[in-house]
Design brief:
The chain has 87 residues and is mainly alpha-helical. It has one domain. Helix content is 80%, strand content 0%. The protein has three helices and no strands. It is elongated, with a radius of gyration of 14 Å.
Length: 87
């Protein structure tokens, strides 16, 4: 358990940094429709709130979090990639 906490913190720092970077890219894209931008930004903000709620004690770090959060991040990145490919 001692080694799990630093790994979780490192993973969350990397994910939060990358999500913020990608959200700024979406905001600056002039060719994306406003509805698509809104969907991506809202999904990104919800995903950013999950680690912060865990660190502030609102939500416990559970096995379910470790299983669902990486899948949600992957789907979010797929959504952004599809937005850039024109689909």
């Amino acid at each position: 358990m001692v080694i799990l906490r630093p790994l979780l913190i490192a993973f969350n720092v990397a994910v939060v940094t990358y999500l913020i970077y990608r959200m700024f890219q979406v905001i600056k894209d002039p060719y994306m429709t406003q509805g698509r931008k809104t969907l991506i930004i809202v999904a990104g903000v919800i995903l950013l709130l999950a680690p912060f709620s865990m660190f502030f004690g609102i939500m416990n770090a559970s096995f379910l979090y470790f299983m669902i959060y990486p899948v949600a991040i992957s789907l979010f990145l797929y959504l952004i990639r599809e937005a850039y490919s024109g689909s």
